[in-house]
């Protein structure tokens, strides 16, 4: 009984701290940009429509807010995606793109860009079809074997990604005009194109997925103890694994098709939070949702405020900050 | 007072505004009254909204004399300066480097990756965009945020001249624009006349990329300039920017090689020396390997005519040997 009480106390403490962090990051995201940078001016513009600066109001509500919401959705989806794959494949190097989703959707996106589609819905749709196609291919290749034979699943994912990156290089080498810019920005991950409808659609699609993963978080704990224990605990391993795999892949595919390949969030956030909070997935899943979102929002803030002339892709920042942060945490925990 | 002008689209076909005169009249009645009062004091500029068709056939509502203009590509900055309308510019895209003073204006991101927030924060009353380069999404979002976006689509020398005229109308500088275009046309005519008697058209290879070797196909300004300057573009074909191996270039046996200024100084000398090793190459034998500023042959601006004149001199020195 005292164990449950300690868990609850721990759980709520983590949730409150991370929620405050996320709200802070979002406020910062609304207040920082390439133009006006004072917090009060931004707040006044939003809450005092009569008095505040109308241009700043447009900027905060129609340019910054969609980006912040998009970053929240993307950060949550990628962090939880990484967490699930690491647990499912029992491999610390697993990340949301490990099953070839990144390669498939990149090919889809590049084909869409080369065909001259607009970012939304055209390129989003082709990217999503690409990732679903690779996911289907992986499941087909591994069908009939004992489900989720981890090594073969991992290896087929790595091979599909390798094959896809060859196709990507081929397509890129054929392209020379301004579409090359679009392709490169897509490959590096880019949140700048989001508008409010897209952000809300994405959140609507992700919410049920996150809920399912959260619902299965205790089952993931048992899975990590080994198949035999899971079996005796009455868990249908095959069904649970397949559900998690498909839900997570759907989540990651949707995210990637909106924002391109934002690297590193899915690898760094679950590990960092695990190092800090311990291995309990009942805490880790919501922590990844909140922490991953906050991290992504902060990275996006840096991406659009650091450079003086125009912004850089958010994916560059996630990797530049994520890697050193992770190494620091790893050293400290040793 | 209200102009219902007929504007030409990118291909020179006249297109009239869809709104009727009466419609505009009714719609602007109150502005007219205010306007007449203000006109009396001499600051009526910018009050009358016109609806123009841009070069994609979109309707764009613009003030008579826009005062806060953002150029979303370097060539547009250049055209605005050529028309002497730089006092209207409040922002330009990155790499707007000509004339040099344009570099001092606030930057709104590169033409391929525009900073939407920066643009909106400058409160423009007009953005001029280019179809091949600026992402469609950004133009659409700006329009949704009530920023007028006028899109130009220069494809060849003729449409560049039309673009100058269109931007002139847009910025209330029609007279300047006509004068500039008239001068450009007469310079082009002079070149055409000088070259009308040529019997031999040298084979020209324009190298715009060094490693790999890249040239320009038929749908480029470079192709148009080379052919108009009395040469044959050996790289012509459907591929916009085709790649070549050294072997292919040797077998095409160009009489002239023009290397654009992506290779500057020492690098140009290196590239030239590499070609000079192949004495079977007519251009190397005759020592006709030159460097030219790439902005003069691939940026859709009036400076293309400078590029045309320079190319004509390089390709047909025998005709221009007397002129300076």
Description:
The complex is a heterodimer of chains A (334) and B (324). Helices cover 78% and strands 0% of the residues of chain A. Chain A has 14 helices and no strands. With 324 residues, chain B is α/β, with parallel strands linked by helices. In chain B, 40% of the residues lie in helices and 17% in strands. Chain B contains 14 helices and 16 strands. Chain B has a 4-stranded parallel beta sheet with strand order 6-5-9-10, with helices on both faces. The radius of gyration of chain B is 23 Å and the shape is elongated. In chain B, 40% of the residues are buried. Residues 1-48 of chain B have low confidence and may be disordered. The chains are: A mainly alpha (334), B alpha/beta (324). Chain A binds chain B through residues 33-36, 55-56, 58-59, 62-64, 118-120, 176-178, 181-182, 185, 192-193, 195, 304, 308-311, and chain B through 94, 107-118, 120-123, 132-133, 135-137, 140-141, 145, 214, 240-241.
Radius of gyration of chain A: 20 Å
Order of helices and strands of chain A: HHHHHHHHHHHHHH
Largest interface, with counts of residues having CB < 8 Å to the other chain, equals: A-B, 28 and 28 residues
Mean pLDDT of chain B: 82
User: What is the share of helical residues of chain B?
Assistant: 40-55%
Choose one word for the global shape of chain A. Answer: globular
Strand neighbour order, sheet with most strands of chain B: 6-5-9-10
In terms of quaternary structure, the protein is heterodimer
- Overall shape of chain B: elongated
Question: Helix count of chain A?
Answer: 14
* Main sheet record of chain B: 4 strands, parallel
Average pLDDT level of chain A: 83
What share of residues are in beta strands of chain A? under 5%
User: Secondary-structure element sequence of chain B?
Assistant: EEHHEEEHEEEHEHEHHEEHEEHEHHEHHH
Calculate the terminal CA-CA distance of chain B, rounded to whole Å.
48 Å
Uncertain segments of chain A: none
């Amino acid at each position: 009984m005292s164990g449950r009480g300690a868990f609850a106390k721990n759980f709520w403490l983590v949730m409150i701290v991370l929620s405050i962090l996320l709200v802070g990051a979002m406020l910062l995201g609304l207040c920082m940009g390439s133009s006006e940078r004072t917090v009060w001016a931004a707040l006044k513009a939003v809450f005092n429509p009569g008095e505040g600066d109308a241009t700043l109001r447009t900027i905060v509500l129609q340019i910054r807010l969609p980006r912040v919401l998009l970053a929240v959705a993307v950060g949550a989806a990628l962090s939880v995606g990484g967490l699930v794959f690491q647990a499912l494949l029992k491999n610390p190097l697993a990340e949301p793109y490990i099953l070839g989703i990144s390669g498939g959707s990149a090919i889809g996106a590049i084909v869409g860009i080369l065909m001259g589609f607009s970012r939304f819905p055209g390129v989003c749709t082709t990217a999503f079809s690409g990732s679903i196609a690779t996911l289907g291919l992986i499941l087909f290749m591994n069908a009939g074997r004992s489900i989720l034979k981890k090594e073969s699943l991992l290896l087929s994912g790595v091979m599909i990604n390798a094959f896809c990156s060859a196709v990507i290089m081929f397509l890129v080498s054929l392209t020379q005009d301004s579409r090359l810019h679009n392709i490169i920005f897509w490959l590096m991950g880019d949140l700048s194109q989001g508008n409010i409808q897209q952000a809300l659609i994405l959140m609507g699609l992700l919410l049920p997925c996150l809920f399912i993963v959260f619902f299965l978080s205790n089952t993931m704990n048992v899975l990590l103890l080994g198949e035999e224990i899971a079996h005796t605990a009455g868990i249908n391993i095959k069904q649970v694994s397949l559900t998690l795999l498909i839900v997570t892949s759907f989540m990651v595919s949707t995210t990637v098709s909106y924002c391109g390949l934002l690297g590193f969030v899915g690898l760094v956030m679950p590990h960092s939070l695990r190092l800090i909070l311990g291995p309990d997935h009942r805490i880790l899943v919501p922590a990844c949702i909140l922490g991953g979102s906050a991290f992504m929002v902060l990275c996006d803030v840096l991406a659009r405020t650091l450079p003086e002339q125009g912004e850089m892709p958010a994916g560059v920042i996630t990797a530049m900050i994520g890697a050193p942060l992770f190494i620091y945490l790893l050293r400290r925990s040793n | 007072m209200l102009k219902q002008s007929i504007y030409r689209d990118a291909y020179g076909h006249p297109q009239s505004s869809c709104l009727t005169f009466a419609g505009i009249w009714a719609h602007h009645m109150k502005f007219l009254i205010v306007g007449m009062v203000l006109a009396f004091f001499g600051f009526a500029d910018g009050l009358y909204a016109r609806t123009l068709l841009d070069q994609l056939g979109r309707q764009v509502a613009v003030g008579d004399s826009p005062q806060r203009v953002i150029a979303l590509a370097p060539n547009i900055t250049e055209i605005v300066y050529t028309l002497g309308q730089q006092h209207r510019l409040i922002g330009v895209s990155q790499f707007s480097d000509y004339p040099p003073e344009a570099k001092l204006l606030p930057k709104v991101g590169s033409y391929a990756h525009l900073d939407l927030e920066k643009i909106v924060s400058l409160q423009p009353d007009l953005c001029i965009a280019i179809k091949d380069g600026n992402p469609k999404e950004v133009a659409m979002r700006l329009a949704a945020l009530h920023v007028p976006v006028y899109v130009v689509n220069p494809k060849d020398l003729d449409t560049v001249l039309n673009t100058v005229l269109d931007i002139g109308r847009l910025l209330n500088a029609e007279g300047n624009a006509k004068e500039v275009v008239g001068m450009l046309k007469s310079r082009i005519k002079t070149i055409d006349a000088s070259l009308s008697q040529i019997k031999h058209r040298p084979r020209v290879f324009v190298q715009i990329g060094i490693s790999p070797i890249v040239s320009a196909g038929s749908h480029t300004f470079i192709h148009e300039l080379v052919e108009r300057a009395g040469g044959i573009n050996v790289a012509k074909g459907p591929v916009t920017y085709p790649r070549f191996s050294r072997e292919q270039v040797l077998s095409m046996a160009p009489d002239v090689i023009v290397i654009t200024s992506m290779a500057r100084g020492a690098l140009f000398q290196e590239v030239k020396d590499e070609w000079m090793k192949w004495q079977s190459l007519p251009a190397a034998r005759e020592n006709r390997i030159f460097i030219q500023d790439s902005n003069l042959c691939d940026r859709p601006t009036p400076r293309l005519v400078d590029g045309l004149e320079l190319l004509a001199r390089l390709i047909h020195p025998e005709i221009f040997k007397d002129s300076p």
